[in-house]
Every structure is written in C-alpha cells, then in structure tokens.
Amino acid sequence: MNSLPNNLKKIALFLERLPGIGEKTANRLAFYLLRLPERDLKDVASNLASIKSKTKLCKVCLNLTEDEICNIDTDSTRDHGVIIVVEEVLDLLSLETGNIYKGIYHVLHGKIDPLNHIGPEDIYIDKLMERIKNSLKNNGTKQSKNTKLKEIILALNPDLEGEATAMYIRDRLNEIKKRTGSSLRITRLAYGLPIGASLEYADYMTLRKAIEGRNNY
C-alpha cells in the first residue's frame, strides 16, 4: 500500500475499517472508486458528508428517516394495529424484504446486555411502553380496525441477550395489560428448522423450539 498515492491510500485505509472488509478488498474498492465518473463520485461524497446531519430517528417508531416521521408510519395502507419490536434497523429491513409483513415497527436500537453495561434504560424500551399506553388509551375511542392496537410481536434475536430483552418487555407489557384490562396479544417469532434443512445437522435447541412451536397440518 506504500506505493499508492496518498489520497488513494487514505481511502483504502478507511474502507479497511468497515465491517467485513480486508486489506485486499479495500484496495479493490478504492480503485473501483477511482474509475467511477466524477459526477458519481461527487454524489457519493455529498451523501457521505450529509449522512449525519440529514439522518434522524422517526418520532414514532425510531426507524431511520430524513423526515420527522418515516414513510412506514405515514403509510395508511399498513396495519397500524400490529407492531413488530426489533433490535436494529437492519432487522426492520430484513422484514421489509419480500413484502411479507404489512404492520408497523418499533426499533429498540440494542438489547439488554449486562456484561456490556447495557440496561433497559439504555435502549428504547420506555419509549415503546409510552407508545403502547397511549395506543391503548385511544383503543377506547372510535377508531378503524387498521389503527386499533391489537398485537405486539417480539422479533428479537434468539440469543441470550435477545431472549432476556424479550422476556423483560413481555413482563412489562403484561403489567400494562393487567392495569388497563386490555386484551392486547403479545407474541414471539416462531423458531424452528429452516427450509431445506436436514434434521441430523440441527442443534438440540433448534429441534426443541421446532417441536414446541409445531402447528396443525
């Protein structure tokens, strides 16, 4: 890399800091950028320069947006009565792929992780509870079926921290349900065998969850 021009070297070193990018890949990407038309490079540079100032959290669901409220929450065709709770925006993007879900979201921006000193107050759990309380109050008013809060789906990752976070949220939701007499449904994403998987290669926890979550056939 010492033989590279200084500006190209700096770009390659920056790219190498990105997740999953090694030295050789960083060099290839730097050369690719060098070959791009200048107009395209200026667009990339402009977007990078403004990414911090233009990107904000949606006031409703904490998704990333350039507006006060993201386009998911302003979409009247979606079912605003069902909220999926996810850890990160990347999880939201995965659920949006393939158009498989038509409700709305709440992004926690993390999970409870005591070993790394992350507690419930460090992520957006209180914001979720406040949102649900306000929605349940409005349930008593005249609303369309598309906006009346019916279900909270906990879509946190199936690791120790994700499970602990899901259980904590479930317990707090149950307290709210008990106080308000709400019939709000609380669900968790099903676990099991992926399509095309072989039983002999599945770990015992996957098999256990698959048996526990079996459906009528």
Question: Please, could you describe this protein's structure?
Answer:
The structure is a single chain. β5, α6 (160-180) and β6 form a beta-alpha-beta unit. The chain has helices at residues 6-16, 23-35, 38-54, 89-96, 125-139, 160-180, 204-212; strands spanning 56-57, 64-65, 82-86, 104-107, 151-154, 185-188. The model has no long low-confidence stretch (mean pLDDT 90). Strands 4-3-5-6 form a four-stranded parallel beta sheet. A two-stranded antiparallel ribbon has the order 1-2. It is built from seven helices and six strands. It is globular. It has two domains: 6-54, RecR Domain 1 (Helicase, Ruva Protein, domain 3), CATH 1.10.8; 77-191, Dna Topoisomerase Vi A Subunit, Chain: A, domain 2. α1 packs across α2. It is of the alpha/beta class. 43% of the residues lie in helices and 10% in strands.
